[in-house]
């Protein structure tokens, strides 16, 4: 099957596949449909060993188990990144983490305007395209919204923080708010968001039964908060289970199991609808997790989490790490594909691949264009068989990951990991050491060097998209919606925020930022935002592409010498606490290059309200250096909504 390379390039891979198909198998009963429907269900956080057919002793997944028997199960399917936002970008764009536009997991970092996605490429071939669930590739009024990246409709959550609540006051459809009756954010309400999301997904399939469609289902459950209605039918599976009535098992853990079983039930609903509409043979269905498992609900008896997401229940072998790490625990995901008549039932494949490979697989399958700059490789020959596709399964020379200050490379069974804490590289042979405990870097230096060289080439500086509304009013409102509003009728975001408040505050506009030790440009958390008078804008020390470590410093120029008596600090006003100042020093000077050795010191608390720090005495100064030594939760970041300068009250009079 040798074809001239030029000719190969000229013929689309789909045509090529069909040519070989007819040459090789002229009398196969079922031809591969020209434009099959694609359903891609990705359950947020659902881990490799949290399924019954993988031996999990507690969680029940009858529909997923049957699905696995009827299709192909992959043992080495890996996430493109170990957390939600970045991996959704890897999946949608076919780019690995060294080339992708979203590498921070802040919830709202957007795709760039010109980026192509699975949806936009299938759209070119006449597919109806719908997404239902959690987008995570750009908040409202950014360049990353799904309706500008090929989706006819996207219904659910755009920002990941919004998605933390299953009872938000509203969901988003194509950037517009859809009110959910009886909800005010948090952990209870009248409308459980996953239900309308599911209903709209089913309606989309039904409405498009006569056209080819791509139905993307990035479902939020079982991601926290761990809430599920009391009358969810999946509870029935656990009637009579001892651990369910054991008061020492947390309610969240019980809810988690039911949330997984709810997703199982909903997979069953999707398959039932496809059967009813006679679309089974014309529809390929994927069922996957998103990132590796997190060791949730840990107890003394269950040190790797109550459900053991990263422990093989059959032999006790563990994946090291979990969600957020580049060890196998952060990357291994369930990955099942079913297509009656096209994918042979009951297969298990050890093919090594990751989420960037999904785009070229689907474009090849659907006869769509594959952009030249994707990092992924089609896995279609493995799914349908090399005979049916007429092409050999290609494999990656190496696979690449990066996340915050970790880097990893895979080369066959070799795995090189540069871990965050020490920053050293380690080398493991996963064939012999699946748990990544035996570092071979000293005996396999040449192998490691090859992989390090690959890593160096694979990394490009990140270029995220932008927000068209620099104030991000609607985006911030969505993040706030996790907690709800007393009224959803107006843009109420601002009222939920605290402001700096003190009679001695130097007015905004009479100072500027002289310098900052770092700022996180990728998600627009600039230093200048600490003196803009707007509580919704935040400065954050740099965490992507690399982590800036404390102490963090901001120097504020008061434009002339003034009598300074203190500072006021306003912590970030969104849902998080990341970077909230703990131990803090303030230095005062008339010369920005020379500060006194002795600062005024204080420790701020974990409060959303403004906090005032009055100095022991008033100082004549033009430059105020704020030095952040620690964060309230002991992490390495610094962040602030606002920093105010207090002048002497005598001076003011
Ligand atoms: Ca996730
Ligand atoms: Ca601000």
What does this structure look like?
The chain has 653 residues and is of the alpha+beta class. It has helices at 5-10, 13-24, 62-70, 84-93, 118-124, 194-207, 251-276, 328-331, 358-366, 380-384, 386-389, 445-458, 473-480, 493-496, 649-652; strands at 37-43, 72-74, 77-78, 128-134, 153-157, 170-173, 176-179, 213-219, 283-289, 335-338, 347-349, 353-354, 399-403, 406-411, 414-418, 425-429, 512-516, 539-540, 552-570, 583-589, 600-603, 611-628, 639-640, 642-647. Helix 6 packs parallel to helix 7 (251-276). The longest helix is centred in the middle third of the chain and has 26 residues, at 251-276. Bound molecules: calcium ion (2 copies).
Top keywords for this entry?
653 residues; alpha+beta; Alkaline Phosphatase, subunit A; Jelly Rolls; 2 domains; ten-stranded mixed beta sheet; six-stranded antiparallel beta sheet; 15 helices; 24 strands; 21% strand; globular; disordered N terminus; binds calcium ion
Overall shape: it is globular
Radius of gyration: 27 Å
Spell out which ligands are present.
calcium ion
- Residues in helices, as a percent range: 10-25%
What number of domains?
A: 2
CATH architecture type of the largest domain: 3-Layer(aba) Sandwich
End-to-end separation? 89 Å
- CATH fourth-tier homologous superfamily of the largest domain: Alkaline Phosphatase, subunit A
Strand content: 15-25%
Number of helices: 15
Q: What would the CATH topology of the largest domain be?
A: Alkaline Phosphatase, subunit A
- The level 1 CATH classification of the largest domain is Alpha Beta
Q: Can you give the mean pLDDT?
A: 92
Describe the sheet with the most strands: 10 strands, mixed
Q: Count the strands?
A: 24
Backbone structural class: alpha+beta
| Strand adjacency order, main sheet | 7-6-5-4-8-1-9-10-2-11
